[in-house]
Specification:
158 residues, alpha/beta, three-stranded mixed β-sheet, 6 helices
């Protein structure tokens, strides 16, 4: 999402795993969004305290299931090892990502989380990048994403 200087309380949904999300991958983007005037909503598997890999404690604003009934101006999935257990394979999250992508709303993912986009089917034939592990690369390739060696990849609203 490009910032053009005028934000009318645009909304961003940030999705974290219940355990082992990357603290800085939530905190830094969240801080930037808030500084630019965006309203940030954090969702996780449950609306109970989530714990980051480095010890951050976050009480999500809502569950992923509750977020599925709402629309946001952008959706970002935070990475970390916890997304393998808690977010990969999450059909409700896939539906959120598909709905927002189909509406040309920006969707993004950090670190290991781009696998969620691939599993949701929105990276088939689309260039993307992720934190490379044998498991993440295999999932990325399995779902037809085109792996590129860059820190950030933008493809349309993805």
């Amino acid at each position: 999402m490009r910032y053009n200087g005028s934000v009318e309380k645009k909304t961003v949904l940030m999705v974290i795993s219940q355990q082992q999300f990357r603290d800085e991958e939530l905190q830094h983007p969240e801080s930037v969004f808030r500084q630019k005037g965006f309203q940030v909503t954090i969702a996780s598997n449950e609306k109970k305290e989530a714990t980051g890999k480095m010890g951050a404690k976050v009480l999500p604003d809502m569950s992923i299931a509750d977020a599925a009934h709402l629309r946001f101006d952008a959706v970002v999935v935070v990475g970390g090892n916890g997304c393998i257990q808690y977010l990969w394979g999450n059909q409700t999250l896939f539906n959120i990502m598909r709905t927002h992508n189909a509406a040309s709303k920006p969707v993004g993912a950090i670190c290991l989380a781009p696998v969620v986009l691939a599993q949701a089917g929105i990276l088939k034939g689309v260039r993307g990048t992720l934190y490379k592990s044998p498991e993440s690369v295999a999932e990325f390739n399995k779902h037809g994403a085109i792996m590129v060696e860059q820190d950030v990849v933008v493809s349309g609203t993805i």
